[in-house]
């Protein structure tokens, strides 16, 4: 329950940027632009991604679980969410400095350190931290 409430708080805070909103009656997440995705937290430090489909419905996901099929197979404990800039809408899940799910499949995360830090995340255009 705490995780669900924390996720809703993050989603609500991120909606300030005009990327998506939450219907307070149904809890549904409505995206402003179809086929976009956003990190719900600080880039490369959060593992939560929001994917907006063609129907403009937002679906949160956990990169640790999403990348479970990436070798070595299994739930990742250190996957993270990456996006090129704050409002780009191009977030992907990443693992060991490789982004998965971009328009060209996999790609190296630019300037990715082996252990991301808040300073590196700031350079990538983070969303506000919700800690």
What can you see in these coordinates?
Strand 3 (36-39) and strand 4 (48-52) form a beta hairpin. The chain is globular. The strands form 2 sheets. It has a 5-stranded antiparallel beta sheet. It has 131 residues and is of the alpha+beta class. The longest helix has 13 residues, at 2-14. It is built from 3 helices and 9 strands, in the order H-E-E-E-E-E-H-E-E-E-E-H.
Top keywords for this entry?
alpha+beta, 9 strands, 3 helices, 131 residues, five-stranded antiparallel beta sheet, four-stranded antiparallel beta sheet, globular, disordered C terminus
Give the structural class.
Answer: alpha+beta
State the separation between the terminal residues, measured CA to CA: 17 Å
Task: Give the amount of beta strand, in percent.
Answer: 25-35%
Gyration radius (Cα, Å) is 14 Å
Low-confidence stretches: 11-16, 122-131
The tally of strands reads 9
Order of helices and strands: HEEEEEHEEEEH
Largest sheet: 5 strands, antiparallel
Question: What is the helical fraction, as a range of percent?
Answer: 10-25%
Physical arrangement of strands within the biggest beta sheet:
1-2-5-4-3
Mean pLDDT: 80
Tally of helical segments: 3
The 3D shape can be described as: globular
What is this structure's SSE topology?
Elements (H helix, E strand, L loop, with lengths): L1 H13 L5 E3 L6 E3 L4 E4 L8 E5 L4 E6 H4 L13 E3 L9 E4 L2 E5 L2 E4 L9 H6 L8
Antiparallel strand pairs: 1-2, 2-5, 3-4, 4-5, 6-7, 7-8, 8-9
């Amino acid at each position: 329950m705490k995780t669900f409430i924390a996720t809703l708080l993050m989603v609500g805070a991120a909606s300030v940027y005009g990327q998506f909103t939450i219907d307070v009656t149904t809890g549904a997440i409505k995206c402003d632009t179809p086929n976009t995705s956003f990190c719900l937290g600080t880039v490369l430090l959060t593992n939560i991604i929001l994917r907006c489909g063609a129907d403009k419905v937002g679906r949160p996901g956990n990169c640790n679980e999403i990348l479970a099929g990436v070798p070595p197979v299994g739930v990742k404990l250190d996957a993270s969410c990456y996006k090129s800039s704050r409002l780009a809408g191009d977030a992907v899940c990443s693992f060991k400095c490789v982004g998965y799910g971009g328009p060209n499949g996999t790609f190296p995360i630019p300037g990715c350190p082996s252990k991301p830090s808040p300073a590196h995340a700031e350079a990538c255009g983070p969303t506000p931290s919700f800690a």
